[in-house]
Amino acid sequence: MTCPIDSNPIDEALKAAKRPSEETFAVGVDVGGTKIETVLVDATGMVLADVRVPARRGGDNVIDDIARTVREVAGDHLNELAVVGVGTPGQVDSEHGVVRNVVNLDIDTLELGEKGSKILGVPVRVENDVNAAAVGAAALLGTPQKGAVAFLNFGTGLAAGIIIDGHLQHGYSGSAGEIGHIPIDPNQLPCPCGQHGCLETICSGASVGRLWTHGNPPMPDLIRQARAGNEEAIAVLAKVTHAIVDAMQIVAQSIDPSVIIFGGGMAKTGEPLVEVTREEIARREASCPFLTTLNLGDRIRLAPVDQPVGAVGAALAALQA
Amino acid sequence: MTCPIDSNPIDEALKAAKRPSEETFAVGVDVGGTKIETVLVDATGMVLADVRVPARRGGDNVIDDIARTVREVAGDHLNELAVVGVGTPGQVDSEHGVVRNVVNLDIDTLELGEKGSKILGVPVRVENDVNAAAVGAAALLGTPQKGAVAFLNFGTGLAAGIIIDGHLQHGYSGSAGEIGHIPIDPNQLPCPCGQHGCLETICSGASVGRLWTHGNPPMPDLIRQARAGNEEAIAVLAKVTHAIVDAMQIVAQSIDPSVIIFGGGMAKTGEPLVEVTREEIARREASCPFLTTLNLGDRIRLAPVDQPVGAVGAALAALQA
Fold this sequence. Notes:
Structural class of chain A: alpha/beta
Order of helices and strands of chain A: HEEEHEEEEHEHEEEHHHEHHHEH
CATH superfamily of the largest domain in chain A: ATPase, nucleotide binding domain
Helix content of chain A: 25-40%
Number of domains of chain A: 2
CATH architecture of the largest domain in chain A: 2-Layer Sandwich
Number of strands of chain A: 13
Distance between the termini of chain A: 30 Å
Radius of gyration of chain A: 20 Å
Oligomer: homodimer
CATH class of the largest domain in chain A: Alpha Beta
Strand order of the largest sheet of chain A: 3-2-1-4-8
């Protein structure tokens, strides 16, 4: 599926730009378990071209699909790109451009940065998919450049992307934002990581799907059923919102971001998810004046659902790096 | 109590400095519940003079004691100071130099920055005491300038100071580092803040004093008794180290600091505290390969106990601001 943009988007952009020689273009690629989405953007993150193709398994196929779609969106201007950024699941070593353990795509170890750069003749930088989505969502929502922004990705697992003063945080061991494996949920469910009570055993898209099997996607149905008075739904929803607000307090009371973006599949639930989260925040605020001063409910924003957040973010993160 | 340094420490420093005109000096003041400590430092945090006086209650007395000790350490060179930094307990609005609710010193609201600047004729900047201690400890320990450093202050309460790329983090609402009131401790003790299970209900100096009343200070005695096989001590120590490692995982998996400094009164326990914390980390690592990769035990450093960490940090934080 290709956006209805002509095959020379940079030509068009150069025509439109007042100072064409100073304009910067980059390509961002969002590698997912089922599809690969590739966009051409300018330095502000504006999408000039967009291509989506089904993902194929295996490292060679992934590199082939990335190269093909990058060429498609860049047209004749491939060599004018400042950089290609790739956001991918798995364990990502951004510094060396190496990706490990992408189970859904049968990838054990892939030197994506080096191989991609050789094939395309353009620097290819690799980023964790949640971090890339954080950068993309922050840019598309126009969050403040100064101070901290947190992106909570409620996907298969739970992880956060942390941006401070416009810079994505990786941390000392590449574990910045790995809040899903903080073992503090009171239900103490076992986690595949080996701990008990990890936040993501309750508040991730996959976990909600295990806790609530009556609807697909589960979260909108869970909220509807709880609203309708279903006792089981009320109990499950209480667990989930409890863990979501624990996650919010963890980021708010460690880095105190001005904006907390909800992203990932579960965030597509939209406003109803924000509403039930705000109800749990209000319940806690009722007994805690300190929490009231934090005004957490007002900090929530939903990641844009109809825009290529991950691909745009991969491009912008690569431009920043 | 005055350090045996002559009354013109800047004179001496100027004589010793190769490029005297470029040397920067600042004064830092650590306002505590029982004493006020004031130091003259150079831009590296080296202490050139140090004065300690008993703290007197009331805003006017506090300002008077600050001004008096600043003049004492600066000597004739007061007007050559770049800045005076004050670290204080209570709610601190660094931007406006206002301090509120310093219960131990009978201060309701004090415009410390403005009043101090007028009296001294030098800019006076005010900082939260934990943040100031974080900056001081990081400087005195020589932690890396790049990346994140976390300072866990186990004092009356529990709070963290977060430094990223050499910059102290305040956050959007001034709540960066307020991890003590994250309500995730499984014992769910009531907290004066209105929540239940706040981390500081278990892992702060004051909380350990409530949980273990058999020794003073309680933490070294608690560890000794647990080591000797006292069942009650073993149970209390397990609660405390559990909460300490929860606090460590929260900072490690949100901002991923290269160094986690233990400070505050309880950290004066020294190596035995580090040992029991590492034992709890090892217990968790035994079932969780992910946690093993974080190597949290190796990141622990103890804040210097024989140096004026808070006062040095107040000066350096003011220089940075």
